[in-house]
Amino acid sequence: MIGTFLNAGAILVFGAWALLSKRQPSTKVQNALKGILGVATIIVGLRWTVVNLGSGGWGHFFKNVLIILLSLMIGRLLGQLLRLQKLSNRLGQFAKEKLEEAKPGQPQRFSTGFNVSSLLFCLAPLAFLGAIADGTSEYWQVLAIKAVMDGLTILAFVVTFGWGVVLSALPVLAFQGTLAMGARYVSPHVDPGMIASANATAGMVIFCVGLVILDLKKIPLTDYLPSVLVAPAIVWLWPPW
Length: 241
Prior knowledge:
The chain is mostly helical. The protein has one domain (2-19, 27-237). Helices cover 78% and strands 0% of the residues. The longest helix has 27 residues, at 27-53. The protein starts with a helix and ends with a helix. The relative contact order is 0.22.
C-alpha cells in the first residue's frame, strides 16, 4: 500500500502548500510537469506490461500478446455496453460546473469541494489500475504518478473551494487502500498466469493514459478498465500450449 499512502500524502502536502503560500505554479511550470508526468506514465505502463509478459519462448510471448489484445478489445466492448466513459464524462462535466459555480464565502463551498475532489480522485482510471498493481505486486510507481497529478489538481481546487478539498485524502486512502488490500488478499489464491495477464493488460491501459496526458491521442480510457478483468478470464479459459 505504499502507493496509496503516497497518493494521500501528496494531497495533504500539496493542499497545505496551497493554503499557506496562496501561490500557483506558473503555466510554464505546469506544462513542464505535465510533459514529465506523461512521459513517466508511458514508461511505467510499458515497463509493467513487459515485466508481466514473462519468459518461455516466442510461442509463450505471442500468446500473451494475443491475450492482451483480445482483453483490450473485449474490455472496450464491455465498457461501451456499461457506458463507463460516458459516466466518466458526466463526472468531469459535473466537476467543471461546480468549479464555475463556486464563489468565495458560499455556504456549500466546503462540502462541494470535498465531494468533487473525492469523486475525481477515487474514480480516475489510475486509481483502479494503480491500486491493483500496488496490491498484487507492490508496484507503487503508478500511484506515485497519480499522487503528483492529484497534488497539482489540489493546488487549483484549494483556491476555488478552500481547505475542504484537502480532506479528500481520507476517501482516497480508504478506497484505494481497500482495493489494494483486496488485490493482495486474492492474488495468492489465483493462478500466477492470470495475475500476470491482468497486470500486463493494465500496463497497456496505463500507457494509453500517458498518451492522453500528452494530448497525443484521445482514448476512452474508462471503457478499457474491464480489460483488466477480462485478461485473467481468457487465461483461465485458454487451454495450455
